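For the sake of transparency, this paper describes our internal protein records without simplification. The record that follows is passed on verbatim for readers who wish to inspect the format:
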Amino acid sequence: MILVTGAAGKTGQAVVRALSARGESARALVRRAEQVAQLKALGAQEALVGDMLNEADLQRATDGARAVYHIPPNVSPYEVEMGERLIAATRSANVQHFVYHSVLRPQIEAMPHHWLKMRVEEALLASGLSFTILQPCAYMQNVAAHERSILERGAYPIPYPPQTRLSLVDLEDVAQAAAIVLTEADWYNAVVELVGTAGMTQDEVALALSETLACPVEAQVVPLAEWQAQARAAGMGEYQIETLSAMFQYYAQQGLSGNPRLLQFLLNRAPTSFAEYIQRTMQALSQVNTPRTLRTDKENVYEASSI
């Protein structure tokens, strides 16, 4: 039995599906009771409702598991506490293997949520557990979250300059990588960066969208203050807004790029390219949209809830 925490999110769902495809039994830890049926439909053998800050819930979740895949909530101020409590529960339950879903370049202190993941990595290194740390870069799915703006207005909204270079990775590749390290002992005590592409400027992302979708797409900058106002209007908390704003400011100055070769070695194939991802997920949608001229207005160009 493999415990997957944070299983109701897009990463958790993808990992549960990937484990099920390999014939592995997964136990999903979710936050709300209404999420149980969904995870079972995706292939989870068990689904438990629990709080990652509640030690009793974590003890119940880890009992009888042979491995843990820990996906913390996105941009949570409590990530270190959750990680430390789950590590303690994992040790108490004599679980064989702890896999942590971290982030590319967690040592960058200028991005607070990266820095918190580094603290969890340190706790895991000191735990004595057999571990694997996976460090994915930004998901290709984050681009597709703006498909309405891309397809209807030809606008790919970004809160940093078009020349910002970011590596991307397909979430499905990340899930397959997770399933591999959870089921193959060769990956014990390893730290693996999960990068699908070399760093792409946002103009290059827009060009790839244009070429694959056969319609004009332009990267359009949303001023940070405007993004923050949209995020507040969408109900995002102040900690999340401040943390993501710090990330955007770091991206604007430094970008965040990695090397795809490690993921290629792990998957034993080339990672999914950005063009392949667009073809798989967005091209069919583009064909039902009527031709239109590229608009450059910024009205509703960025949806804060789709980060």
